[in-house]
Amino acid sequence: MRYLDPKNDLTFKKVFGEHPHLLKSFLNAVMPLSEGKKIVSLEYLPAEMVPEIPMFANSIVDVRCIDEKGQQFIVEMQMLWTDSFKSRVLFNASKAG
Question: 9 vs 1, 3, 6, 71, 90, CA distance in Å?
Fold first, then answer.
């Protein structure tokens, strides 16, 4: 039996994009979130908010999360280190407000 790789962008979008309750449960299970900071809601950010970075080809899924204390943060799956990572962090921080 063969399984789809959840790190593959299309698989990730199909599973978690259509089932946000699974994504919330998954993120709460794998992220080192302290007590009282578990994710209570999330929002998929529209693709038009993703900057044009040639090597990503607009296939990024960004998720705005809100924790139990009302704090917002952005989650993005990053498989490879890129020189543009710092720019992506700044861009994501600007979307969190």
Answer: 21, 14, 8, 27, 22
**Per-residue buried b or exposed e for 45-60, using 16+ beta carbons within 10 Å of the residue's own CB:** beeeebeeeeeeeeeb
**In the structure encoding, which two tokens stand for residue 86, read together?**
């710092």
Helix (H) or strand (E) run with residue 40 in it: strand 39-44
Kind and range of the H or E run holding 56 = none
Q: Are 24 and 42 in contact (CB under 8 A)?
A: yes
Give CA–CA dist 62/95, Å, rounded: 10
pTM: 0.69
Q: Is the pLDDT assigned to residue 39 strictly greater than 50?
A: yes
What pLDDT is attached to residue 51?
A: 52
**pLDDT, tens digit (0-9, with 9 covering 90-100), for 46-95:** 755 445 555 444 445 678 899 999 998 888 777 777 777 777 777 767 76
Instruction: Using CB atoms within 10 Å of the CB of residue 16, give its burial: 0 to 12 exposed, 13 to 18 middle, 19+ buried.
Output: buried
